[in-house]
Design a protein that fits this description.
Length: 593
């Protein structure tokens, strides 16, 4: 139906009206989508990059503060007094007071709210002398994994109650006495968590998108709420490590519960942190999706309109031709009655269609008559060909048999001449019975045994014959005289070699077919002859077989008769090598009387 006139008319309408518009709409929507997507992604990436720059600036200041504090004169004096056991308590208290004042003045003068603490291993925190910090997560991470940048937490070792109550992030710096290079503890530079959290929460990605500052383990650095997005964020971190090794920023889609999200990231290598932003893809590109859906809807409506128009225009033209096309298919399959039954009726006003229909109907009647006549002629010709082949087999066989009996008489084997003559008589009675072209396998095998008896009388020990007769095959019908020429050729060409001729004849019912196999150890066939025989079987060319001028005439007669009797149901298996022998198998359909 796709190649019908109606289908082609609809295709023309679609090509001329819809496809250009659809292609234009598609190209415009694609280009607009790419441009808007690139703009949205670039804008979001720039916002995240600005926040990353802000983070780097702040953390650089925090790190510089740690370096300045450790190397300051006040800190080093306190370390010297602290490490010298000969100093008095008054000296220790005085240097400690000076260090507190130094830390306090630094916190007061800093606009970012940075505060400083010092922790000595043997004295606890500088402000409270509290040692419970050793049980905190940030201290454990610092001691075991050397993580110097902490996540959000609270620290009681601060100069006042306000600082103790606020959430902070910290940078830990080893507290080293520069003269002796002895590590006494660590400096803890604190900055308010809100300093970065307020900035990151102002970033908007779509309507529900979030930007989170994460550690390498997937934990929030700024104590942000990530309960709903924890799985997708951690999965995103894993993909960043695998797919974007060596890259500090990027964008990629990620699946979550059947939905596609876009993930923006920016790495902070110095702290081993990652700024990650997630937003549903549909939400980010919602306007683009709406525009594309509208354009596709309009295109679909136009396509439907064109199809309906094509149906309307083609109804009066293509319908009769389509019906006549169905009638032609019946004619092609030889179903002439069905073709005449579905032939369209001629209507007034459709003279061209009516003329074509009338001519085709006449042609159908004449074609049916010609095919029936040709079929009868082919049957008669097939029968004539079969009779011609049969007449070629009989003289050929009798000539060979008489030569065998003549040989026995020449060898003075009078005692065996009578047996051979009796066997020949039975064979002649069988061969001269032309009442039926088909015989039972058992009858044909009895004929072959008489024939082999004569051959064994002549060749004695030079001939060894094995017959494997399947009892299940004996009652099936086969074409007459198709085994004897095969056995005759097998014996003849096996005796041409020095040594003993070994011939095997086997009948078998296998896979719903009758199999007749003749195998010998003779001189074999050339590859060219094997190919010619197989080609003749495929083409069914009996004329070439009848005019073979004595070349393999017995074998060719058998193959031609099998082809004439069984048609496409006949198959030949032929394996032969020069100097090694031949194995020929006839595959025939199972026929019963």
């Amino acid at each position: 139906m796709f190649f019908s006139l109606r289908s082609r008319l609809m295709a023309v309408f679609s090509i001329l009206l819809i496809l250009p518009f659809a292609a234009l709409a598609y190209i415009l929507s694609e280009e607009a989508t790419k441009t808007i997507k690139a703009s949205i992604e670039s804008s979001t990436a720039q916002t995240i990059e600005q926040f990353a720059s802000h983070v780097v600036t702040l953390l650089t200041q925090v790190e510089d503060t740690g370096n300045q504090v450790v190397s300051s004169r006040t800190t080093q004096e306190w370390l010297s007094v602290h490490l010298n056991p000969d100093n008095t308590i008054q000296e220790r208290v005085l240097t400690k007071m000076r260090l507190r004042e130094y830390f306090s003045s630094y916190a007061v003068n800093n606009s970012n709210g940075i505060s400083i603490s010092a922790f000595a291993e043997d004295a606890g925190g500088l402000w409270t002398q509290d040692r419970t910090y050793k049980n905190s997560e940030w201290f454990t991470a610092f001691m075991t994994a050397n993580k110097r940048w902490t996540t959000a937490h609270k620290d009681i070792d601060q100069s006042d109650e306000f600082m103790r109550a606020r959430s902070i992030n910290s940078f830990l710096f080893p507290l080293v006495q520069l003269q002796s290079l002895k590590n006494v503890g660590f400096i803890k530079v604190n900055y308010p968590t809100t300093l970065l959290r307020n900035a990151i929460e102002k970033i908007r990605v779509g309507k529900t998108g979030k930007v989170i500052l994460l550690t390498s383990e997937g934990n929030s650095v700024l104590d942000q709420n990530m309960s709903e997005d924890r799985d997708i964020l951690r999965s995103g971190l894993e993909q960043i490590d695998k797919r974007f090794e060596g890259e500090n920023s990027g964008i990629f889609p990620i699946e979550d519960k059947g939905n596609t999200n876009l993930l923006f990231f920016r790495k902070l290598p110095a702290q081993n942190w990652t700024i990650v932003g997630t937003v549903p893809e549909g939400e980010l590109y919602e306007k683009i999706t709406h525009i594309r859906q509208t354009m596709l809807l309009v295109t679909a409506l136009l396509l439907i309109l064109a199809i309906l128009t094509a149906f309307w225009l083609s109804a009066g033209i293509t319908k009769p031709l389509s019906v006549m096309g169905k009638a032609m298919k019946h004619v092609q399959r030889g179903e002439f009655n069905q073709a005449l039954h579905v032939m369209p009726k001629v209507r007034e006003g459709h003279s061209e269609v009516g003329y074509v229909t009338g001519v085709f109907e006449q042609m159908t009647h004449r074609l049916r008559y010609l095919i029936e006549t040709e079929f009868e002629t082919n049957l008669r010709r097939k029968n004539a060909e079969y009779k011609a082949l049969l007449l070629q087999i009989n003289p050929h066989f009798y000539n060979n048999t008489l030569e065998i009996i003549s040989g026995l008489a020449a060898m003075k084997r009078e005692d065996l001449v009578m047996d051979a003559t009796e066997a020949l008589g039975k064979m002649m009675r069988y061969s001269l019975n032309l009442n039926s072209d088909l015989v039972r396998v058992a009858e044909e095998m009895s004929y072959i045994r008489d024939y082999l008896f004569i051959l064994l009388l002549r060749h004695e020990d030079r001939l060894q014959v094995v017959i494997e007769d399947d009892p299940a095959a004996k009652d099936f019908m086969i074409a007459k005289f198709i085994i004897q020429p095969l056995v005759e050729n097998a014996v003849k060409y096996s005796l041409e070699k020095d040594g003993v001729a070994q011939v095997t004849l086997r009948t078998q019912v296998q896979d719903g077919r009758l199999m007749i196999c003749v195998k010998d150890n003779g001189i074999g066939m050339s590859p060219e002859l094997v190919q010619d025989l197989l080609a003749e079987i495929k083409t069914g060319d009996s004329v070439a077989i009848l005019s073979s001028e004595g070349q393999s005439i017995g074998l060719r007669n058998v193959l031609s008769r099998c082809r004439l009797n069984y048609g496409e149901q006949f198959h030949l298996g032929l394996h032969s090598r020069l100097g090694e022998g031949t194995e020929m198998t006839l595959y025939l359909p199972l026929l019963r009387s």
